Amino acid sequence: MEIRAALCFLAVMSVEPSPDCPICQRLHDFIAEWRIKEPSWHNAPVPTFLPVGGIDSVKLLIVGLAPGVRGANRTGRPFTGDYAGDLLYGTLSEFGFSRGTFAARPDDGLELVNASITNAVRCVPPENKPVGGEISNCRRFLTPTIEQFTNLRAIVTLGTIAHQSTIRAFGQPVAKFPFSHGGQNDIGNIRIFSSYHCSRYNTNTGRLTTEMFKSVFADVRRYLDDLPE
Ligand code: URA
């Protein structure tokens, strides 16, 4: 128990969980099962995807939900190998937030431009559903992740869980900043743009169309381009 507490304390100070993060027992056990089934996979917390320009170049942060088991949990890069990544990376490229060709592999050479991608929960959850305690546990990484980007001006939150965890990371009550697709809220000098998650479920059911998703990023592009130097 003492070792666990010490690990938790160290983790509080870090932007990334340790590769064998013990904080959420259920997620730790789930990953352990996948390490046995698929030893060649990443099977660990998925780190934030940073641009080549480094932390100081980041103006936009995208906050997803959690790695998919056969996607980011397999490849080790957010939204890579996940169905959701096809729409996300295609849209980022269209609005100038990436360069290179996305090929759903971490070695495809795709580079983010002034943008970074992270997840509210860094470990793959069973059935893509993190529970409340896991979401709040993992906020100890989301908060310093946001804080490290000193030039950050925009965040896109994908889905209600990412939205609420981001609002809480700012120490704000979610009731004051409710989720709505296409919604925009300013917290300090950072504008939070909310979108339905670009999951296969949401696009298949028509809750989120490609046009709806692109329109959020068109708003982000306009907002960033219109900011004074
Ligand atoms: N892959 C991720 O990394 N995050 C999501 O939210 C969905 C898929």
TrEMBL record:
One Pfam family here: UDG
Keywords noted in UniProt: 4Fe-4S, DNA damage, DNA repair, Glycosidase, Hydrolase, Iron, Iron-sulfur, Metal-binding
SMART domains: UDG (SM00986), UreE_C (SM00987)
SUPFAM superfamilies: Uracil-DNA glycosylase-like
Key word DNA repair present: yes
Family of this protein: Belongs to the uracil-DNA glycosylase (UDG) superfamily. Type 5 (UDGb) family.
PANTHER family on file: TYPE-5 URACIL-DNA GLYCOSYLASE
Protein name: Type-5 uracil-DNA glycosylase
